[in-house]
Amino acid sequence: MIRSDEGEEAVSAMVTEVPDGSVRNILEQETLKWVFVGGKGGVGKTTSSSIISVLLAQVRQSVLVISTDPAHNLSDAFQQRFTKVPTLVNGFSNLYAMEVDPKMEDDDLSDEGLEGFLSELTNAIPGVDEAMSFAEMLKLVQTMDYSVIVFDTAPTGHTLRLLQFPSTLEKGLEKVMSLKNKFGGMFTQATRLLGLGDEFSEDAMLGRLEGIKDVIEQVNRQFKDPDLTTFVCVCIPEFLSLYETERLVQELAKFEIDAHNIIINQVLFEDEAVESKLLKARIKMQQKYIDQFYMLYDDFNITKLPLLPEEVCGVQALRKFCQHYVTPYKPSLVRGTIEEVQQRISTLRLRLQEAESELERLQGK
């Protein structure tokens, strides 16, 4: 799938005329209810999901951004503490944020009655705890009236597990049914003998699991509707990230989930006035993978974002960086212009002065 050095120039020629994309299509799609942002770890998913939610807050009545990544970074991005309860983001009247742990918390499952049995069930079937926790969170979210919900997801593997939750719960129900068929009569007698009552009956257990499964299936149908749901893939221009993005796109297609936006982070632009040999080599390497992104995903909106000298933290920084998500980034100084040459001369003079000062200092020792 990923090309070798042979024929790179031809590939580059094919993609040089491709216009840069943006996330405007997401902002203009008024029917969208769910926006997932995902990709490999450390590529800037949280920054992108934060900025997309900030942009959506400008055109929607109310927006909720949820982090389902165990290593929560939303609080760092907005420089505000968030919990599992939706909290209004400082500086906004219609943007809320929350951080949820996809694992069941200890106090969510007591050791008594039905809850104790469900706790045992979650240990028996891998992934059921996450599925049930996610279902409970979705139930909560559905009772709230948000125009659109943005998910800052965990790295790719966790995201794909999240999409498999309906089938995971199906297995859970099958397990319960097999237990019921095998030990039904004995189970009923035991519960009566112990005085546990109706709460611990087969019907109560099945009802609870069926209810959770219904929520997941209902939401899953929405996830598969391109009018309601889209997935934004975030990456950087490197081999492993390209490979991971391709894997993610293929899996999303398998789950019938719409994806037509790719954000490429940490790009060094060729037109930028760069003198460092290391940076020039890096630009050449990045361009090879950027070309391949354009070739593989020619029908996607590809947004390229610059590598910055500092992190994008705080509402002010997020709002400032928003512009590059809707308008293609252009370097402030383009190589070959009068301004760029003047800047280069000024930089060289400054370096010469610093070198002369250092020489005088060494000679004076």
From TrEMBL:
Signal peptide: none annotated. ATPase required for the post-translational delivery of tail-anchored (TA) proteins to the endoplasmic reticulum. Recognizes and selectively binds the transmembrane domain of TA proteins in the cytosol. This complex then targets to the endoplasmic reticulum by membrane-bound receptors, where the tail-anchored protein is released for insertion. This process is regulated by ATP binding and hydrolysis. ATP binding drives the homodimer towards the closed dimer state, facilitating recognition of newly synthesized TA membrane proteins. ATP hydrolysis is required for insertion. The active site is at D69. It comes from Zingiber officinale. Its main location: cytoplasm. This is ArsA/GET3 Anion-transporting ATPase-like domain-containing protein. It is found in: Cytoplasm; Endoplasmic reticulum. One of its GO terms (biological process) is tail-anchored membrane protein insertion into ER membrane. Pfam families: ArsA_ATPase. ATP binds at K40, G41, G42, V43, G44, K45, T46, T47, E238, N265. Belongs to the arsA ATPase family. One of its GO terms (molecular function) is ATP hydrolysis activity. Residues 33-323 form the ArsA/GET3 Anion-transporting ATPase-like domain. Residues 338-365 form a coiled coil. Keywords: ATP-binding, Coiled coil, Cytoplasm, Endoplasmic reticulum, Hydrolase, Nucleotide-binding, Transport. HAMAP family: Asna1_Get3 (MF_03112). GO terms for cellular component: GET complex. The lineage of its organism: Eukaryota, Viridiplantae, Streptophyta, Embryophyta, Tracheophyta. Homodimer.
